[in-house]
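User: My collaborator and I are trying to settle a disagreement about how two of our proteins should look. Neither of us wants to argue from intuition anymore, so we agreed to look at predicted structures for both before our next call. Could you fold the first one, then the second, and keep them clearly separated?

Assistant: That sounds like a sensible way to settle it. I'll keep them separate. The first protein:
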Amino acid sequence: MYAIVRAGGRQEKVSVGDVLIIDKVNGEAGDSIDLTPLLLVDGETITSDADKLAKVTVKAEVVKAEKGPKITIIKYKNKTGYRKRQGHRQPLTRVKVTSIES
């Protein structure tokens, strides 16, 4: 059994035991969060109806908070001496899917 869930602005294919890295969610390590299911595949049965998906719960456990890779932003204007350098690391959260219940 697997599900397609909305997590951090993207859609992810998950099954029980999968570890995902998604955009930051509030919560400490060990906290449980619910992910929104968009599609559920259970053997031969495919569920995409919104009314039936409202009864499906996909639970995940927060493993730890992380940061993404460093991205360097450089702005430069010719002949004016203007240079600006900036860095960014996106806050992320590592979660482990614990259950998919329909």
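The second protein, kept apart from the first:
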Amino acid sequence: MENLDVTVLRALRDWRAAGQHALLVTVVRTWGSSPRPVGSIMALRGDGAVVGSVSGGCIEDDLIARYTQPGAKDALPRQAPPQFARYGVSAEEAFRFGLPCGGTLELLLEFDPDAASLRELVQALDAGRLVHRAVRLEGGQVTLQDADAPAELRLDAAQLTNTFGPEYRMLIIGAGQMSEYLATMAQFCGFAVTVCDPREEYRGSFDVPGARLVATMPDDTVAALQPDARTCVIALTHDPKLDDLALLQALETPAFYIGAIGSRRNNAARRQRMIEHLEQTEESLARLRGPVGLYIGSKTPPEIAVSIMAEVLAVKNGVQLPQGMDVAHVKDQLGLAAPGSACVVG
């Protein structure tokens, strides 16, 4: 499943390239609770087709009605400079538009965004680049600039700048049953998933539509993938011959999450093995996570996959996880089994 922003921009590009009227809607401010965060975008075509969202649906319905019915009250123009729209100012309006109690959000509406600029932006995202898109509020002119790091939406009296990046990627080493659950969840969360396993007996039964399955050695796969700050690498094979070199290769990249499944004993043994035989240090292995996942008492493959996906999303979203969610720490505190007696997490 493609990154939602890219999906919205791709649809908007196609509509404008075909000469169709379209509206780009961006959440620029929120007060109190709001259904969608600042920076969220939605594309609305002249006939009412919608991709993306800015609320739970009621605001979308209002925008569709105002945009597709030119003669209606409060109708939106087809061509005009950018303008703001605010919803949920009063309790009555918040209720009408399905906003949480006290919720208010402000939107920027861009009418008929330039097709050439949209094409250039989507090409940059397809090439894996991070891009600042700035739109002048007075006339709607758009400029694009490559970015070095993700950034929050910026709005001042002159322009709005939103940062768009390529889709997040997940590389899973091992094509077992748990990999199928994790790959499925990752795709629903907007990750492009690659599963690597040189073992034919595991690849033969792997079946997750949309996930790319490759037979190359894991360390070669990591090198070819060139992980960036929007990539995570997770080893699920329990086989040092497949996992170790790939994990070390990943640690040389900016990947935001690198980890391996296994018991506390197995993960301790992996670190010791890397230090003794692969010239690593505790410092060089500081970013290596294991056992992966959050402690949720999981024991089955789908539950373990949930715990891993939850930890990946927490790290991606910059959430500082409490020590009480760390698998090794909790099991040590609770005295749950001898270290290494099981390979479950969570």
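Some points you might bring to the call about the second protein. The chain has two domains: 4-164, 169-334. Residues 263 and 343 are 4 Å apart (CA to CA).
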